[in-house]
Amino acid sequence: MTVSTLRPGSDPVNLTLLITTSATMLDIASANELPHVRIRASVPGPLIDVPELLRFRDLLWTLADRDLRVRYKQTALGVIWVVLQPLMSSLIFAFVFGVIAGMPSDGKPYLLFAFAGMTAWNTFANVLTRVSGSLVSNAQMLSKIYFPRLILPVSAAISALVDSAISLGLMLVMMGFYRAWPGWGIVLLPVWLVILVVLALGLGLMAASWIVRYRDVTHIIPVVLQLGLFISPVAWSLANPNLSEKFRWILRLNPLCSLIEAIRWSLLGEGDLALPALAYSIAVAAGVFWMGVMVFKKQERSFADVI
Amino acid sequence: MSSNDLAVSARGLSKSYLISHNSNGPTTLREAIVERVKHPFGVNGQQRETFWALNDVDFDIGQGESVGIIGRNGAGKSTLLKILSRITYPTRGVVDIYGRVASLLEVGTGFHGELTGRENITLNGSILGMSRREIKNKFDEIVAFAEVENFLDTPVKRYSSGMYVRLAFAVAAHLDPQILIVDEVLAVGDFAFQKKCLGKMQEVSGAGRTVLFVSHNMATVVQLCNRALLFRRGGLALDGDSESVVQAYITEGQTKQEDILDFADTRRQHNVNGRARLISARLNSEDKVGPWAISYGTPVSLELQFVVKRPVPLFEFGIALCSASCAEFGSSLSRDVVAPSTVEPGEYLCEIAFPTLKLCTGSYYFDLGIRSDRGMEDYLLQAIHFEVLPNAESAEAMIHQRRGQMIPEVSYSIRELQPQSGAQAGAAGAVPG
After folding, report:
1. Starting from the edge strand earliest in sequence, which strands make up the sheet with B235-241, in order?
2. How many Cα neighbours within 13 Å face the side chain of B14?
3. Cβ-defined contact of B127 to A39 (cutoff 8 Å)
4. What is the pTM (predicted TM-score) of this model?
5. How far apart are the CA of A169 and the nearest CA of chain B, in angstroms?
6. Chain B residues near residue A145 by CB distance under 8 angstroms
7. How many Å separate Cα A91 from the centre of its chain?
8. Contact check, Cβ <8 Å, B131/A26
9. B4 → chain A, closest CA residue
10. Three state DSSP letters for B292-304
């Protein structure tokens, strides 16, 4: 099962790790030919080494599973916190913005409106926060054992997405309660979410790589997120008649703006679905993700030396 | 050696780190930005030096070899292991590795205190590279090895440190790799468990697996490995059979010309209290051939200088005699002669003599320690190396034909069973006299 194409003497260009194993690592022991790894100084070729990631998929799930288990250990309410947190913030928003300030909510119950926005926002914020901290919080692993470094941020993102899924489930329950049935737009919901997550992951990968060198970034992220929460249409709607069209376009420069509106549109059938703005968000998300992977890739090999 | 028999092959392996001499170099983003603005193209205006942790190292290790890697702290051993386990990458050079590598650079990596023993086995197993199926198959074996059956569903933060280490090592020990890289893991756990770990490692190397073993415990290196690599300041200084390499390593710090051996730079065992500390030693035998060599038949005598910083209750000395392969074959505690008592602060000189000890010719080591009410105050493994040289007396005693390390003091008395007419044939006396 193992075909080694490289022996000392032959020298492929820029090929740092040559693992020609295709099956699980378990089977190797029985094979006569041994997997061959060449370790050298130059930077390897592929931006994302998918086969290598697949070989370590067990680790990916185990780490995500660990994050989930650990997060609510020694809490009385346990996993209920996953829904309680966004629900409480939505109630506060509903009270402050909906009841006191009387802000419009696209004609839907304000709680539903706020919870839809909050679910989208939390997905972004949680993925970004967890991914950015994933390297430093596993510093011991990084400096003791080998695995594709991308496993850590990806598993952090997965564990954050589990929270989002639960939150989304609660959203559907609440919609049932308010008898607010979604339209055909719901089928596009996964698309918006994927773009949102790609954007968060890209930013998270950059932040994670920088935090390894400069812990300052850890302190900047909550501030940026706090700002982001207010300039994104979570508590307010882009359709708010008080906003001038010019100001709307300024708000749309925030790539999250049209994404959150689109998510709300998919869930509640109301909201702003501006296609040029969405195209812009998709382009930004793709660009940020590509940059994130580049930054991560470039720094990856020095993580253990610097962390 | 054909490439098929190779496990590890390193060529020109080097790794450098940049060391910044400027203590107020940028450690925060702001400082870095300010520095960068001030010196947009410079190297941040600070002095940097390239430090070669590993410099141009070549070696080949065959399948099934067990190789000890020794050297002082900072010699490059850990850097080498980190490169071999793909945690860090070389600056120059190439390593080819054939076979699945498992590295135990530190047991318990990835253990999470909040998780139960059961959960941590799965977690740690995957982190170390086992598939879920593999973990499932070996689960019972791991639990039995670690002896934690009754605490499987307890969070490991409530484990005793011994249980924790046992569980961590048990997972790692069941990795089943072709190449096992081990760094000092045997320094943990109680004695019985250490023995168990050693047995497991012997089993691994006995099964034809390659073992790379870094340790400061020379006895273990000689016991486990048939070959050793000695590193000195980033370079490979010596490569040979483990016994001779270990001996070269131990004697390198002990210059043959110096009469007094200073312990300031000697590596201490890490769990010492340090209220009392050994300073230096001198071989004090009357018939010294060199500063650290005596002639066969001469009683061994040592002069030890030590300092006591704070009063030490139940103070006592311990000294162990080890063979060339660092195996301990005899020890003495001062309680054997005088009861331990409190020693007040000050500098002291102690003479330790072995008036009747007769060592065979060869190399020996002393381990030295100071014990107290709190355990060890100071503990130096292979602190002193000395030689017993042959002479006419040893030739007469046919020492070179004998096995073992010492000639015990024995008396022989021979009597004929049916005495004839008052004449008594026999001999009585101590050998050696």
Report:
1. B101-104, B179-183, B210-214, B66-71, B227-232, B235-241
2. 11
3. no
4. 0.71
5. 27
6. 85, 87, 103, 105, 109-110, 127-129
7. 25
8. yes
9. A33
10. CEEECCCCEEEEE
User: What pLDDT tens digit does each residue of chain B (433 aa) get?
Assistant: 455 688 999 999 999 888 766 555 556 777 777 776 766 555 554 567 788 899 999 999 999 899 999 887 778 888 898 898 888 889 999 999 998 888 776 666 778 888 888 988 988 888 887 888 889 999 999 999 888 888 989 888 888 877 888 888 888 878 778 888 887 655 555 667 777 777 777 787 788 889 898 877 777 788 788 899 999 888 999 999 988 888 888 777 665 567 888 888 777 776 788 899 999 998 887 777 778 888 888 888 999 999 999 999 999 999 999 887 778 888 999 999 999 999 999 999 999 999 888 898 888 889 999 999 988 899 988 888 888 888 888 888 888 778 888 888 899 999 888 866 655 544 454 444 4
Taking the Cβ of residue A3 and every Cβ of chain B, the question of whether any pair is shorter than 8 Å is answered with: no
> If you measure CA to CA, which chain B residue comes closest to A43?
B89
Which of A36, A62, A216 is nearest residue B29 as measured by Cβ atoms? A216
Q: Are A173 and A97 in contact (CB under 8 A)?
A: no
Q: How far is CA B51 from CA B48, B91, B192, B404, in A?
A: 9, 11, 41, 45
The full set of domain ranges for chain A reads 1-45, 48-306
Interface check for B16 against chain A (CB to CB < 8 A): the answer is no
ipTM for this model: 0.71
In chain B, which segments carry CATH 2.70.50.60? 260-392
Where in chain B do CATH 3.40.50.300 domains reside?
3-248
The answer to whether A138 faces chain B, any CB pair under 8 Å, is yes
Fold of B3-248: Rossmann fold (3.40.50)
B260-392 carries CATH number 2.60.40.10: no
Number of CB atoms found within 10 A of residue B256's CB: 11
